[in-house]
Each structure stands twice: as structure tokens, then as C-alpha cells.
Amino acid sequence: MNKNKQLFLRTKKHIPGGVNSPVRAFKAVGGTPVFFKRGKGSKLFDVNGKEYIDYVGSWGPLILGHCDSNVVKAVKRAAESGTSFGAPTEAETILAEMITSAIPSIELIRFVNSGTEAVMSAIRLARAFTGKENIIKFEGCYHGHSDSMLVNAGSGLATFGIPSSPGVPSCLAEKTISLPYNDVEKLESKVKELKGNVACIIVEPIAANMGLVLPEKGFLASLRRAASENGIILIFDEVITGFRLRYGSVSKIYNISPDLICLGKIIGGGLPVGAYGGRKDIMRMISPEGPVYQAGTLSGNPLAMAGGIFTLKALRDNKDIYKQLDQKGNILEDGIRKAINKNSSECALTRIGSMFTLFFTGKIVRDYVAAKQCDTGLYARYFKGMLKSGVYLPPSQFETSFISTAHSEKDIEKTIKSNYLVLKRWKRTDRIL
């Protein structure tokens, strides 16, 4: 028995399902989850010593790859001075200045410990500021596991087909209205129906938790318009996209200014982190300036701040870094599309910059309904084939893959070749799509 199986059996005796986050359990793809021992650059190494090219990147934050030397040095220096104080540090100020300079719509920012915590706090703040209770979200968008957000969510909920979660009070679920992503008509109709009783509209401006789904022309603008005309707070959940596609927020790409933005992942350089920020008049309602309470012992943790500062410095100071990431994405996309065409595979590839998803469906995926029509069994076979060839992809059809600055031409070439060979093994008659 290999070490992965041994560890999984051992861990299941102590941790529910043997994992600390559901998708890691490999239930969507079958088999035993891989237990990793170390990472370096674009590579992961499991407990058996096998090497993988990693396109999960800890689900997005490792834009510089594993163990970037400057980030590691910064975290080590911070740890040597103290791992936690529960008190202010200069590092919090430095990172706050960097983020607010990069994202002008964030006038004030509050650091927390996770994306879930950032969203939960932003929702509470929006309700307090508007005096309203209803919130609008979109099917397939995942905003963490706080009670209000576990309604038709993406990520693990999409993977396991769970529309909501036991333990969520019905009174809270009733206050969360879930609409189809990219459907302007239904949004405008619902806002009109609720007659000014909506606290906020929250959205992943680029959805990355039902696989990668891009906003259609006019969709985000319709959210801004509906929010402005009806006294609603517009929240962009950029836990994944913040600093991933450009230095700052994707709101600049779409020329939309949200009222609040939630961040995470990249701003901590791979350490646990979250943040929410936006307009001063809204953010000043947070305690101790205002009546909205939110606190956290480890918020602004010096290790996460150090990791974030040096990650953002690397992204800020290399003017070509996002162009280079996009070029790598272009090469990988071109190779995958050629393999799809040569093998007559019924797949739909979505990519923007360093983010991509290969959907096992013959249709363009524009919303959660289309994503759920994918052949998840076929994706499982594909995942296993790529894993065997030494390429680590998300163990679920409903997740997004990420390219880092550490991925080399050789890595991309091997991935393209592996993708071609895996797809070539399947004849159309072998598949039900």
C-alpha cells in the first residue's frame, strides 16, 4: 500500500472524511487523495516522492509558484520577530497602503483571516448601512461557507450537488435570493419585485467556482446600474481574481466601480488571509469607529502580511508579469484547443489570463445550469489520466486551474502533450455526452 492510501486511512479516523476541506477528498473524481510533502516553483511532490506540475496553486494564491524565495525569506524574518501579537504592526499599514493604492475604490480596508470571513463581514456591513435584509447572489458563485452564502453556491457545494446545507436557518436562507449568472433580465425583474428591500448584490465578477465562467457584455454594468438606482450596495468578491489578472481589481478591466470589494488568497502570499474594503462612508461604520462589530485575534497576522507585501511587490515591480502570464495561458490554450479538434473531443475551454477550465460539454458554459450539464464522469477519467502523467489539476469539474510565473515552457509543453494523449485514448463511441 502506498503512503497516500496509508495516510488517508489513518487520517479518516480523526478528521471527517479524512480532509479539512471537502473537494480535497477526491469524491468527485474517485480514488485516494494525494498527500503532498513539499512544493517548489511549479512543482508539487507527494509523500511517495512523485513529481507533479501543479495547476491548482493552493486554489489560486500562489501566483509566484511554490516557495518563492523572497516571500519565504520575508515570512521567516517575520516569524523570527513574533508569529502573532494581537496588536497593530507596521506590516498591516504597509499592505493596506499597497492595496488601496492599487484599487482606488478601496478607500478603507479591514484585514481578516479568510475569504469567508471577508464576505460575511461585508454582508453584515451592507445590511447595517442600508437598513435592509435581503441579499442577491448568483447561482454557482461561491462566497465562502457563512450561513447566508450557502444557497445555490459553487465550489464544493457544486461538486457534491448540495443546493444548501443543513444547519442554515430557513429565515436566513429566505433572505438570500439566488439568480442565474449572466441573466440581466432576471436581475432587473427581481430588484423591481423586492421594491427597494435589498441590502446588497454580491457577485464574483469573473466566476471561478463553477469552473471558470466569464461575465457577458453588459452583465456587470447592469449590476452597477441596479444597485445605484435602488440604494443597494454592490459587492465584488475578488478573493480569487484580486491581483490575479492585473495589479489590483478586475473592476478596472470592466470599468465598473463596486461599493465594497472582498479580497484574499494572493494578498497573503499563500498564508491564511482575507480583507474587505471600499467607500469610506460605508467602512467607517465598522467598530471602533461605528456600531458594526467585527473582530479577530489573528487578523493582520504578521506572517500573512509579510507574505502579502512581498508577493504584491513582485507583481507591482515587474511591469511585464501579467503579460507573461497571459502569454503562457495563450500557448496552453492553443495546445489544448488543437488536441480537442484533433481528437474530436466534445469539450469547451474557457480561459482568461492565467485562469482556465476545460469543461466536458459541447456547449459554451455561461451559467451554473450549463456547468452542471458537464459530464463529470468523463472529467474524472480525464483528471486521473492527467494525474498519472504527472499533471495535477483540480479534483472537480467545477473548479478553476491557475498558471503561475514559475511555470516554464517545458511545463506547458508537457501539459499540452499529456492533454493530447489523454484525450486521444477516448473514442467518441466510448463517451456519453
Which percent range fits the helix content? 25-40%
The CA-CA distance between the termini, in Å, is 35 Å
What characteristic shape results from the CA principal axes?
globular
Total helical elements: 15
Q: Structural class of the helix and strand makeup?
A: alpha/beta
User: If you consult CATH, what is the topology of the largest domain?
Assistant: Aspartate Aminotransferase, domain 2
Rg calculated over all Cα atoms: 21 Å
User: How many β strands by DSSP?
Assistant: 14
Spatially, the strands of the biggest sheet line up as 4-10-9-8-7-5-6
Main sheet?
7 strands, mixed
- Unreliable spans are 154-163, 428-433
> Going by CATH, what is the homologous superfamily of the largest domain?
Type I PLP-dependent aspartate aminotransferase-like (Major domain)
What percent of residues are in strands? 5-15%
Describe the overall structure.
- The chain is an alpha/beta fold and 433 residues long.
- The chain contains 15 helices and 14 strands.
